[in-house]
Write a structure and sequence with these properties.
0% strand, mainly alpha, 515 residues
Length: 515
């Protein structure tokens, strides 16, 4: 195989590996009602089924990025692919909620090996700057489309098969990638990485998981529970200890000197804030289509595809040439302004709005985010030495996960607060039904179904109307944040060149060797 063929074969294998976790992320949401009927999990177990993957993924990204730089990203990717396939099979046939939770956590641990390794291998394969940018844009754009395909694929499977089918389909795809990768992928590792600093691993895991857990719990239960503050305090303390240690050991898990690069730091922060603005919109529209409009999961998944297609067009087709015309800072800012415009258009959408009126807002939101996040992702990879690209990718992915959790918590709380404030229930609603209706739209529709015909219909209509008001408030927040991110990108990335030369290793400082 010639060099060009090997490069694009590497790209295809990495893309295939990245598609599966992205589809899996949204597939679970569709499968939960079906597996709940089969396994009868408790409410707490349902939460852990949903969150175990994300906690393991976020907590282990930094560690896996560092391990990949040491043992080689090809080796780590093949290990992670094999484990992901095995864990998917266990998930599909899990006979109990406890085993399902454990399998989802194992899936998250395997998933943490995949994205940093994929990006590092692409960085290694595509050395010419413009070609690398095009490859990163295509990779991120198509991977983003996979998130939109998740509800469609899982909806189609659930219409014909049992809930485990949405996970079992991962096995043959990952098996094919494993075999092809063993023969095709190049190796990518730091030639002189040093030993793995084992004390840093639990500090990074405890820090990230503690913070993410606190954010998720605050969004779900409010701020009046002691365990939320305890988790946040422990998480922040662990992160602080982790960062201090990284500056003291000779071979840190992540090189904090990377943050001296304005291009790297600005891109990581921009990605985090952009995901903050984006992630709530994705969940809100899923709820809007399925609960407020009453669409099936398959129809809702198909309806959301234009946004994913817009992200693919923005990332794969538009970002690379626009960098050469406008420069990186302006392209990121343009993308965020376009996304803000798309989010703003959501404010005219109501319960009786035609789908064709929704289409421009979805396309613009996806297009803008695809533009911005492709450029920042490419900038992260280009601004660090290729031997450290695994750790750099892991840092960026961790920041993205944190931004998503914050967005879900803050903007989700805005939606809930407005919903509860404006909900005007009709007279005659029993107190238990009224309390349930004020909890969420889903609970309101369940309560309405238990009430007499006219009264139930009035409760459902009031809840749907209140949800739309809350959705407008949250999306207005997303639009404002996206506009602020555009300004932030213009400032932090203003001196980043259009074409970033091969980054060199920073000078080695004197280290105080920690025990």
């Amino acid at each position: 195989m010639n060099e060009t063929g090997r490069k694009w074969s590497t790209f295809a294998i990495c893309l295939l590996v990245a598609l599966v976790p992205n589809i899996d992320l949204t597939a679970l949401n569709q499968a939960i009602p079906h597996l709940s009927a089969d396994l009868d999990p408790s409410a707490t177990q349902i939460l852990w089924i949903a969150d175990a993957y994300g906690f393991a993924l976020a907590g282990l990204l930094v560690t896996m990025g560092g391990i990949g730089d040491r043992i080689g990203h090809k080796r780590l990717l093949l290990i992670g692919t094999a484990v992901f396939a095995a864990a998917s099979a266990v998930t599909a046939y899990a006979p109990s909620a406890e085993l399902l939770i454990a399998a989802r956590a194992l899936l998250g641990a395997a998933g943490a090996t995949l994205m940093p390794s994929c990006l590092s291998l692409i960085r290694r394969a595509f050395t010419e700057p413009k070609e690398r940018t095009a490859a990163v844009g295509a990779f991120m754009g198509i991977a983003g489309l996979a998130v939109g395909l998740g509800p469609v694929l899982s909806g189609a499977l659930l219409d014909h098969f049992w809930w485990g089918s949405v996970f079992l389909i991962n096995v043959p795809v990952m098996a094919a990638a494993l075999v092809a990768g063993a023969f095709v992928l190049p190796e990518s590792r730091n030639p002189a990485p040093g030993r793995l600093d084992l004390p840093s691993v639990p500090l990074s895991v405890a820090g990230v998981v503690g913070v993410v857990y606190a954010i998720k719990e605050a969004a779900a239960h409010g701020l009046d529970e002691t365990r939320i503050y305890l988790s946040l305090a422990l998480g922040l303390a662990a992160l602080a200890a982790f960062l201090v240690r990284q500056g003291r050991v000779a071979h840190p898990l992540i090189d904090i000197r990377l943050f001296r690069h304005a291009a790297f730091t600005g891109s990581v922060c921009t990605n985090m804030f952009a995901m903050f603005a984006l992630v709530a919109q994705s969940l809100i529209f899923s709820l809007f289509f399925q609960l407020a409009l009453g669409w099936s999961p398959l129809k809702a998944g198909l309806a959301g595809l234009p946004g994913a297609a817009g992200a693919m067009i923005g990332g794969a087709a538009l970002a690379p040439p626009l960098i050469g015309v406008l420069g990186r800072a302006r392209v990121v800012a343009l993308g965020m302004v376009v996304a803000a415009g798309g989010f703003s258009l959501y404010l005219v959408i109501g319960l009786h709005t035609s789908y064709w009126v929704m289409l421009p807002s979805m396309l613009l939101g996806g297009l803008g985010m695809g533009l911005a996040m492709t450029v920042t992702g490419d900038t992260v990879l280009a601004s660090v030495p290729k031997d450290r690209s695994g750790a750099a990718s892991a840092i960026a992915e961790t920041a993205t996960e944190l931004g998503g959790a914050l967005g879900m918590a803050v903007l989700g709380s805005v939606l809930t607060a407005v919903y509860r404030n404006v909900l005007d229930l009709p007279a005659g609603v029993p107190a238990p039904a009224g309390a349930a209706a004020r909890d969420s739209l889903g609970a309101a529709l369940q309560a309405a179904a238990q009430l007499p015909g006219t009264l139930g219909a009035e409760v459902a209509a009031a809840a749907r109307g209140a949800f739309v008001d809350g959705m407008h408030a949250a999306l207005a927040g997303s639009a404002c944040l996206a506009a602020l991110v555009a300004v932030f990108a213009l400032v932090t990335l203003r001196n980043v060149p259009k074409v970033i030369a091969e980054a060199e290793e920073p000078e080695e400082p004197e280290f105080v060797h920690a025990p």
